[in-house]
Amino acid sequence: MNGDCVFCRILDGELPAHFVYKDEKVAVIRDINPQAPTHLLVIPREHISSADQVEDPSLWSVLMGTATKVARDLGLVEDGYRVVVNCGDRAGQTVHHLHVHLLSGRFFQWPPG
Ligand code: 5GP
Ligand code: ZN
Description:
Layout: H1 6-11, E1 19-22, E2 26-30, E3 38-44, H2 58-73, E4 81-84, E5 100-104
Residues 2, 5, 7-8, 47, 97 line the site of zinc ion.
């Protein structure tokens, strides 16, 4: 728990959020500023600042397994969905607690902006 971190405070129940899923390792919330009709954030409970700081690679299995489970459970698979991890300021990371974006419900261009 990092008291200066907005995601730690949400996961600790100190700040409100709309939870879609939670277990002992990870939680999924709705993004406060959605960039698609469905925009979720898959967040590990452990405070890890960025993707390159992950020490146990099995965490990726938890994060991607949760993202794909939620995509199935919410019926996003047929429409298609995108998973994104922004790593570092120049890649668009604004919250320095690791998270996987799960976006769906519109057409996504490639390459991303
Ligand atoms: P990043 O830019 O770091 O990849 O993504 C951070 C995401 O967190 C952004 O999409 C932003 O809208 C979302 N976000 C920031 N603060 C909050 C908050 O307090 N609650 C929720 N639900 N989402 C947040
Ligand atoms: Zn944190």
